[in-house]
């Protein structure tokens, strides 16, 4: 399938997974609106990579926790290309906190994370919905996490926010159909700056080796893997899919079996 | 970018004479897979294979009764002989019948279990050595929304499909390290011959609760199947993909 001339907004699109999604959308011919909050240079570099693939791309600054900024982001896309077809709610944040250290998270830590991961997604969908409706068509993909399904991840506040995002996905799938489809992708692990920024390259390497030892597929996921799942759900071929959480985790949610020999 | 998604792969599709599996076989072939269609409906199956060949694809039909281990062994051997290997197995053949607990018989219950549940076990068991040998194999089992939610008058069907769900995840966990991914799909109502005996009331009740408000086409199911069986989903195993118009959000 192709996404020729479809207009897609990717929040947090300058770096990591968001950048991989933008490039994947560009390769399918979509026009991409790359949102960023701080990473202006990275967003411009990602836009350049989209253009090198023959697609149109613009960058727009917005903090998705700020409703006026969300509305402005959507308005900018619609003014530029006259329509909106796809929204990828990818912007997200966390605070690393050891699971057994109950003092590591303050009330404000929770609220800061919810403001982006939960309220941000809500505000983006609210701002986009009228344009999807006037199209008669729209696809939202929320970037959630396996942590939101099984209660793991960088912190309690983060896992709870993704649990809320999964619930929002169900709620919106029911209330926005049949014109608008709303789905979520739940990555298990992805090697990105999400981990290397706080843990360093050595810390990231350790996590990769854990994945290669412990997951059923013996594999560490990449942003490109997750981007493909997101694009699958955003694509027209998935027009009968709504309200799902698609897990891409090398099988991590199945648990680890002891080693057995097989030929 | 325009590389075919199933280039270099060979897929064995059970139930491929009709319905969902036929759409899977046709889509996979158009994406470059060599396909072997296995079914008990020989006339329709030969026609599907001939149509795929006429459209420029590689396909052959083999008689396969999924409830017979001998039949599976010979279908896998035919695929290996014809195309030199097997990378992909689609366990899509299945049967459906409405019956309440009061109306279900031991024979009826076992018949459903034999085709829908044992059939999937035998398919995986027969194909896994070849899939592992391929170094990058995938299995896709057809479950149903009925595997995870309660619908009236289908106790035997629901039980057989719930078994397929757990069997898929067991197979995924056991075989990931040997280079085989195993996923399952959960359709809601799909426009095929299977639902010819479903009552209007049951279908309408389902449709009225679906956010997308329409039945799936076999092509809707085939498209999700293509994602899961292609290398696009190289990081995906043990996943449960609902293609159901939102039925399971209720
Ligand atoms: N149609 C739906 O609404 C629906 C919903 C959920 C799940 N499913 C599942 O999808 C699968 C395909 O269903 P469909 O709708 O395409 O039905 P269908 O009746 O159109 O096709 C089923 C195919 O399986 C074959 N088959 C039956 N018994 C067999 C056996 N013992 N060995 C080999 N082949 C055999 C049939 O000949 C037929 O070609 C089934 O597993 C079904 O349970 C269908």
From TrEMBL, chain A:
Family membership: Belongs to the short-chain dehydrogenases/reductases (SDR) family.
Organism, scientific name: Novosphingobium colocasiae
Keywords on record: Oxidoreductase
Short name of one Pfam family: adh_short_C2
Keyword Oxidoreductase assigned: yes
Gene Ontology terms, MF aspect: oxidoreductase activity
Top-rank lineage group of the source organism: Bacteria
Lineage per the UniProt record: Bacteria, Pseudomonadati, Pseudomonadota, Alphaproteobacteria, Sphingomonadales
Keyword Oxidoreductase: yes
Record-linked NCBIfam families: PRK07231.1
Domain Ketoreductase as annotated: residue spans: 6-193
Protein name: Oxidoreductase
SMART domains on file: PKS_KR
Automatic annotation (TrEMBL), chain B:
Keywords assigned by UniProt, alphabetized: Lipid metabolism, NAD, Oxidoreductase, Steroid metabolism
GO MF, one example: oxidoreductase activity
InterPro entries: NAD(P)-bd_dom_sf, Sc_DH/Rdtase_CS, SDR_fam
Similarity remark: Belongs to the short-chain dehydrogenases/reductases (SDR) family.
Protein's GO biological process: steroid metabolic process
Phylogenetic lineage: Bacteria, Pseudomonadati, Pseudomonadota, Alphaproteobacteria, Sphingomonadales
Pfam families: adh_short_C2
Protein name (database record): Short-chain dehydrogenase/reductase
């Amino acid at each position: 399938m192709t996404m020729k001339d479809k207009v897609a907004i990717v929040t947090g699109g300058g770096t990591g997974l968001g950048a991989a999604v933008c490039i994947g959308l560009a390769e399918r011919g979509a026009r991409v609106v790359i949102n960023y909050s701080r990473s202006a240079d990275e967003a411009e570099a990602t836009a350049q990579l989209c253009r090198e693939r023959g697609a149109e791309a613009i960058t727009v600054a917005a903090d998705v926790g700020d409703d006026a900024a969300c509305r402005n982001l959507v308005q900018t896309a619609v003014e530029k290309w006259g329509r909106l077809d796809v929204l990828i709610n990818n912007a997200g944040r966390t605070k690393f906190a050891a699971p057994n250290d109950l003092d590591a998270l303050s009330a404000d830590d929770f609220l800061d994370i919810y403001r982006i991961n939960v309220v941000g997604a809500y505000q983006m969908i609210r701002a986009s919905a009228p344009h999807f409706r006037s199209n008669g068509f729209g696809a939202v993909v929320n970037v959630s996490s396996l942590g939101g399904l099984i209660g793991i991840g960088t912190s309690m506040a983060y896992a709870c926010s993704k649990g809320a995002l999964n619930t929002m996905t169900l709620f919106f799938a029911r209330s926005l159909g049949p014109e608008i489809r709303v789905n979520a992708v739940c990555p298990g692990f992805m090697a990105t700056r999400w981990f290397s920024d706080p843990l360093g390259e050595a810390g990231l390497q350790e996590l990769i080796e854990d994945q290669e030892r412990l997951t059923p597929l013996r594999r560490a996921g990449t942003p490109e893997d997750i981007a493909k799942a997101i694009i699958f759900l955003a694509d027209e071929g998935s027009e009968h899919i709504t309200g799902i959480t698609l897990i891409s985790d090398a099988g991590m949610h199945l648990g680890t079996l002891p080693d057995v020999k097989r030929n | 970018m325009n590389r075919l998604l199933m280039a270099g792969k060979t897929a064995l599709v059970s139930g491929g004479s009709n319905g969902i599996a036929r759409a899977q076989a046709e889509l996979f072939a158009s994406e470059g897979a060599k396909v072997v269609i296995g079914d008990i409906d020989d006339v329709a199956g030969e026609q599907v294979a001939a149509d795929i060949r006429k459209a420029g694809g590689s396909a052959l039909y083999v008689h396969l009764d999924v409830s017979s281990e001998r039949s599976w062994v010979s279908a896998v051997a035919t695929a290996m002989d014809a195309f030199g290997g097997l990378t992909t197995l689609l366990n899509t053949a299945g049967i459906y019948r409405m019956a309440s607990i009061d109306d279900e018989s031991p024979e009826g219950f076992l018949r459903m279990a034999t085709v829908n549940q044992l059939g999937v076990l035998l398919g995986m068991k027969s194909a896994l050595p070849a899939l592992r040998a391929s170094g990058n194999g995938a299995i896709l089992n057809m479950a149903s929304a009925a595997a995870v939610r309660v619908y009236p008058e289908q106790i035997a069907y629901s039980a057989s499909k719930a078994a397929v769900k757990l069997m898929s995840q067991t197979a995924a966990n056991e075989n990931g390290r040997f280079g085989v991914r195993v996923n399952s799909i959960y359709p809601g109502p799909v426009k095929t011959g299977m639902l010819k005996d479903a009552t209007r009331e049951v279908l309408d009740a389902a449709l009225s609760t679906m956010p997308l408000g329409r039945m799936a086409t076999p092509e809707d199911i085939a498209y999700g199947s293509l994602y899961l069986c292609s290398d696009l989903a190289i990081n995906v195993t043990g996943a449960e993909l609902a293609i159901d118009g939102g039925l399971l959000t209720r």
